[in-house]
Specification:
The chain contains 8 helices and 5 strands, in the order H-E-H-E-H-E-H-E-H-E-H-H-H. The protein has helices at 2-6, 21-31, 47-54, 70-77, 94-101, 112-124, 126-135, 145-164, and strands spanning 12-15, 39-42, 60-61, 82-85, 108-109. Helix 6 packs across helix 7. The model has no long low-confidence stretch (mean pLDDT 94). It has a 3-stranded parallel β-sheet. A two-stranded parallel sheet has the order 1-2. It has 2 domains: 2-137, Glycogen Phosphorylase B (Rossmann fold, 3-Layer(aba) Sandwich), CATH 3.40.50.2000; 144-174, no CATH class.
């Protein structure tokens, strides 16, 4: 709601859920001085339709304490920059990993204040948003299946070499 206050012409777009979800969100928005009409609810759709409409969003705001997992990947695949705050457990750090693999570590924030400030900056400074958007490509390591294949094959080969040499398992970099 603070971000909506700071970006007056923005809307929050959420996936619709069973009642009373929508009513509760609208009530919460009004209680914080945000018009309920600025909260949009999208009905569930098949994956191809979901990805097509997802590409119409400007910025994906990730939540805490549980990050978007598949939906975060979907947003990046659809060309929508994702903003996250690093969590303290696996479920809250997934999007930080996705953004690292996508070459967008600058979209990982460490505090709520940083998160809100960066969301507002990206929403109100077109040049900053365009710079981030330009870096998000489908040939980034996150979506480069051939690079992943080569790296995992190299890791398997290295593990095999270590085992064949009679050495104990250990960490290594590829």
């Amino acid at each position: 709601m603070r971000i909506l206050h700071r970006v007056p012409d923005s809307v929050l777009w959420l996936l619709a859920a069973v009642a009373p979800f929508g009513e509760n969100i609208a009530k919460h928005a009004r209680a914080h001085g945000v018009a309920a009409e600025r909260i949009l609810f999208a009905p569930d759709r098949p994956p191809d339709q979901h990805l097509a409409r997802l590409s119409l969003a400007d910025l994906f705001l990730d939540g805490q304490p549980y990050n978007a997992h598949t939906t975060g990947s979907d947003a990046l695949w659809a060309g929508v920059p994702l903003l996250t705050r690093r969590g303290t457990a696996f479920a809250g750090r997934v999007c930080a990993s996705l953004l690292g693999a996508a070459g967008l570590p600058e979209l990982v924030t460490e505090s709520q204040e940083q998160y809100e400030d960066l969301a507002v900056r990206l929403a109100t400074e077109p040049d900053a948003f365009a710079a981030v958007k330009a870096k998000l490509t489908r040939d980034c390591p996150l979506f480069n299946t051939d690079l992943f294949r080569r790296n995992i094959e190299a890791a398997y080969s290295r593990m095999w070499e270590i085992w064949r040499a009679g050495e104990s398992p250990r960490a290594f970099d590829i």
